[in-house]
């Protein structure tokens, strides 16, 4: 568990954050300058809060009232930055074991073999960093941090310097870490796609404060938080299970409380529990059930609320077997459909709009 209370005045900028998060990955998400790195630096002990406390898994690392301030090197934290910062003169093996060799044997909680296996870097052990791709370097940097058996892994935009295919390659590795090694992760990002895939707890940062803290599916599905989560990113997140893959066309079927959702092809095995994001901009509404349409998903729903959003948009919340589905329609569409709470309507979703990046394994 992570228990953080931080207050620090940095020139005109005030960081004032209270956060309690369970195990797993906690993501700090927010625009540039909202204070994400300031928080990470205070947890790491690289800058000192004016007041507050930092407790990780029961260990007090900082407490202004009790005058506790553990030095950064004694906090036993793993830190992964945007750039891998590997030691150029050491092989991958040398980099990986660097922190590990400095630990007393009794403090080594994480085994070399398991880290190498999870990160898929067994074939790179003899290479120097100069001969690694950006994604491989980051995997080694993560491995090095893990092998120092940290109390918590701090990851500050670890994918920001990588292109989108390397990001996609690395995401599944990071997604496994927290659970596999039972280490909490504090993850800074301004990519909602990463947050969706990785975070158990989401902290929406705004002007030095936590504007909202909660489960990803809860916060992303809240229309009032859209100024912070972003109009483009807005959408409901529902829990589902991979029910099957179409043997002829390859589409993946997801079973969720509201029925079956057909989505783009994925490689996830049947039975995998996922959360799936359905972008509000990809949901259309039909008052009369349509026939002969290309959209694969036509779900019976009931209108819960209709709320004018900014500009020319209207948010429509639909209830579908206990799950919420959020549709964003134009004001002119609302003018012609006259949707109101209680109406039975069909939610239409193209299978092709839900891809692997919208599914997070649970
Ligand atoms: N040591 C410092 N002294 C004074 N002001 C600082 C210091 N460090 C950061 N700031 C200010 O605090 C604010 C928050 O910066 P911070 O780097 O934490 O934001 P961020 O959300 O991580 O941004 P980005 O996504 O761009 O990295 C900024 O206005 C920054 O100028």
From TrEMBL:
A GO CC annotation recorded here is: membrane
Which lineage do the record's taxonomy fields give for this organism? Bacteria, Pseudomonadati, Pseudomonadota, Alphaproteobacteria, Rhodospirillales
Q: Which GO terms describe its molecular function?
A: ABC-type transporter activity; ATP binding; ATP hydrolysis activity; molybdate ion transmembrane transporter activity
What this protein is called in its record is Molybdenum ABC transporter ATP-binding protein
Boundaries of every Mop domain copy? 292-358
The ABC transporter domain extends over: 2-232
UniProt-listed NCBIfam families: modC_ABC
- Print the keywords alphabetically: ATP-binding, Cell inner membrane, Cell membrane, Membrane, Molybdenum, Nucleotide-binding, Translocase, Transport
């Amino acid at each position: 568990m992570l228990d953080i209370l931080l207050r620090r005045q940095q020139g005109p900028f005030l960081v004032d954050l209270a956060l309690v998060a369970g195990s797993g990955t906690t993501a700090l998400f927010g625009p540039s300058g909202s204070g994400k790195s300031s928080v990470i630096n205070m947890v790491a002990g690289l800058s000192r809060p004016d007041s507050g406390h930092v407790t990780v898994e029961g260990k007090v690392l900082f407490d202004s009232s009790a005058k506790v301030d553990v030095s950064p090197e004694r906090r036993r934290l793993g830190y992964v930055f945007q750039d891998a910062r590997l030691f150029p003169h050491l092989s991958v093996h040398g980099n990986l074991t660097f922190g590990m060799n400095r630990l007393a044997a009794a403090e080594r909680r994480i085994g070399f073999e398991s880290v190498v296996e999870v990160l898929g870097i067994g074939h790179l052990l003899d290479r120097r960093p100069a001969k690694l791709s950006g994604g491989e370097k980051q995997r080694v940097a993560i491995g090095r941090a893990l092998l120092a058996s940290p109390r918590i892994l701090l990851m500050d935009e670890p994918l920001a310097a990588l292109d989108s295919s390397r990001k996609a390659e690395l995401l599944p590795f990071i997604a496994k870490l927290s659970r596999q090694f039972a280490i909490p992760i504090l993850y800074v990002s301004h990519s909602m796609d990463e947050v969706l895939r990785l975070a158990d707890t989401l902290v929406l940062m705004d002007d030095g404060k936590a504007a909202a803290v909660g489960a990803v599916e809860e916060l992303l599905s809240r229309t009032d938080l859209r100024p912070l989560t972003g109009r483009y990113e807005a959408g409901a997140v529902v829990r589902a299970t991979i029910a099957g893959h179409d043997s002829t066309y390859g589409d993946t079927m997801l079973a969720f409380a509201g029925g079956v959702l057909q989505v783009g092809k994925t490689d996830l095995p049947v039975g995998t529990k996922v959360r799936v994001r359905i972008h509000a901009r990809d949901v259309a509404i039909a008052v009369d059930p349509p026939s002969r349409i290309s959209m694969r998903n036509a779900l019976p729903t009931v209108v819960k609320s209709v709320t004018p959003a900014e500009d020319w948009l209207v948010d429509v919340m639909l209830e579908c077997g206990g799950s919420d589905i959020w549709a964003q329609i134009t004001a002119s569409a609302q003018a012609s459909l006259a949707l109101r709470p209680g109406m039975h309507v069909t939610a239409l979703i193209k299978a092709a709009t839900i891809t692997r990046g919208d599914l997070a394994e649970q």
